[in-house]
Please model this.
Amino acid sequence: MKQANFLPFFLGLLAWVCVSCVKAEDPYKYFNWEVTYGRISPLGVSQRGILINGQFPGPIVNCETNDNVIVNVVNKLDEPFLITWNGIQQRKESWQDGVLGTNCPIPPKTNWTYHMQVKDQIGSFFYFPSTAMHRAAGGFGAFNILARPVIFVPYLKPVAEFSVLVSDWWKSDHKALQQILDSGKSFPKPNGLLINGRPGGTSFTGRKGQRYLFRVSNVALTTSINFRIQGHTLSLVETEGSHTLHESYESFDLHVGQSASFLVTLTAASKDYFIVASTRFTKPILTATGILHYDGSSAKASLPLPIAPTYQKHWSMKQARTIRWNLTANAARPNPQGAFHFGTIPVVRTVVLANSKAKINGKLRYAVNKVSHINPATPLKPADFYNIPGVFKLNSIKDRPSAGPTTLAPSVLGFALHDFVEIVFQNNENSIQSWHLDGHDFWAVGYGGGQWNSTLRTRFYNLNDATTRHTIQVYPRSWSSILVSLDNKGMWNLRSANWPRQYLGQQLYARVWNDEKSLFTEYDAPENVLHCGKFRK
Model:
C-alpha cells in the first residue's frame, strides 16, 4: 500500500523533471542568408559587392549567452564561399569555425548550415567572409551577444544599442585585388574609410540625457583606426567579451579585427555631432564620419572634426595598457572574472612568433617563423580527425624564429589540451601587425618596443588585471605578449588579421589535442559536414 501511494508522487516528479529539462534547453535563433553579388557605390563608384539578403553591410545577429545560432548560408556567388565568426569560440567544435583549415568551402549554387552555440560568451563581435578576397567586397556584419537577464551587467543599462562597423575600402573589384596578390605584388593602399558601409551620413539618433551603448568593430582589411564622437566621452565597458574597468576616453584606437563597447551619455547641447573614424599609422590619413543626432534638434553638426593622433605608436601603446579587466564583475557566468587568477598559473611553454616577408619563386609571401602557410585541398581538421595521410606535418613550424630560407607548407603547431601557454608576437617590420586566435580568448599581458626577452616580463607584464580578448596589435619594431589557456580542443586558426598578409601565408593552425575521444572534450563532425580533397564520403 505504501509503495502504491508513492507511485503517483514518483510519476509526477519524473514528469516535472522531464518538463523542466525541455524548458531548460537553451533557445534557438534561426537565420537564412542568401549571399549574392549586387551593385554598391560606397565611394561613389559603382562596383560589385557581396550582399547578404540584399544588405551591405550584412544583417546584425543579436542573441543571448548560450543561445544556439543556426545560420543557413546559400551561396549564390560564382566561387566557393565561407563565413567565419570573429571571436565566437565554437566550444568543442572547430568544425563550425568557417575557415579553410577546418571547413570545406560551400560550393557555388549550394547551401550549408552552421550550427553554433555561443556558450558562456557576451560581447561585441562580427562575422566576415574567410575565402579568397571576398572580404574586400562586403559580406560582413555585427554579431552581438547580450547577457542573460539573470546575470548582472556591471554598468548602467543603456536605453538603446548601436552597432558601428568601420572598414577600409577599395574602388577595385575584389577579384582584381586578389589578382594583384596572386601575381606577387604588394597590396595597394585603401581608397577610403567607411562607417556602416558609407564614408559619411550614417546617423544614430538619441535623446538628451539618455545613455547609449556603441558596439564598435574594426572590420578593415589592413588599417588601424581611431574612433571618437565630437563633444562626447567614450566610457569603455567591454572588449571582445570581457567587462573592463570604466575608463573614459576622448578617442580610442581599434586595430584590425578588434571590437569594443562604449557607454555614451548625451549631455551636450541638443544638435548634431560628428562621429569620426580615421586611419592610424597611414599616409595619407583617411577619415569617415557619421552623425549623432539629438532627437528633436534641427541644428547641424559643425566643423572642425575632433582631432586624434595619427602616427604616434607610443600614444597608442600607452592607451592599450590602460585597458584593464574588471576583476569583481562577472562576464557570461555569475562568478567574478577575477576569480581566475591567471597571473599565478605556471606557464608550460613559451612560443615566440616572428612575422616576416620574403620572395618565393619571384612572388611576395608573408610568413611566421620562416613558414608561409598554404591551405591544402583537404582541410586540416578532417585530415587530423580521420587520420588522412599526406595532408600536413605536425610541428612544421617551430616555437622560435630561426635563420634560413622561407618555405611554403601547411603550418601546424601542436599543443596539449589545457596547456597554459605564453605566446610572444615579435614584429621586426615597420608596419603595425594584428593577430587573431580562433576558439579562445587570451590575456593581453604586455606590449613593448624592440626585441622581446624573458627579463621584460617583470617590467612590462600586467599579471593582475590584463583584459582578455581575441585580437592583439603589435606595433612597428615591437612585441606583444599573451597568456592563453588552451582549453578548447580542435584545430584553431592563429592568423594575421591583416587580410592580404593572411592570404599570402601569415597564419598557422594550433592543434589543441588529447588522445581521449569523448564528447565532453570535442564533438564529432556534424552530419552535414562538407567533403573535399581527400576527405570523401
